[in-house]
Prior knowledge:
Blueprint: H1 7-25, E1 30-31, H2 33-40, H3 44-52, E2 64-65, H4 66-76, E3 83-88, H5 92-99, H6 102-105, E4 108-115, E5 124-125, E6 128-132, H7 136-143, E7 147-150, H8 154-166, E8 171-174, E9 187-190, H9 193-217
Amino acid sequence: MQKVISTAVIKRLPRYYRYLGELRKKEVVRISSKELSERMNVTASQIRQDLNNFGGFGQQGYGYNVEYLYTEIGKILGLDQEHHVAIIGAGNLGQAIANYGDFARRGFDIRAIFDVKPELIGKEIGGVKIRSMSELKDYVTNQKPDIVALAVPKEHAMQVANDVVSWGVGAIWNFAPTELHLPKDVVVENVHLTESLMRLSYNIRAAKDKQKESETEQ
């Protein structure tokens, strides 16, 4: 039986991967959990617990080999495989996703973009031609993308998601500001940009309140 990994651990894995990538660029060969914790603001104990879910990877008295751990976490995240991605929605957000070059370097190959606007169809974004939504069913059915990125208005998101799932898509990267109610076997990753901005706003306010309290106490 496959071990169930908590969502919190999964959310930290990309951070480990990113920090280890930075260490590789600096040609750091090894690092201890304590040193890594100081860089990431995560306790050394938490790092060891997280990595122990996948086998540990460290050696007592040595720490972690940066190159090896980077490679292994990449495998855990599935970055050693290529993922075929189709974007639905070629507005500002869809274009930003398509133009972000780091996705291709991570194995996320954006091969198709779809939109309803006639003036956009036929244009290219990041070297990928925008297709008409009328071609979507045929494309999904025959080309079988691994991931569909939804960058459509929220009022259309549920219908589009239902359509692509019925045609065989098993993973949705949802940028629409709405919850998708899909079968449990469909993997959904929601990216709520407004909620992220609200959290940032809260933290700014909290920091200001803390500063005011400190000034009052002085």
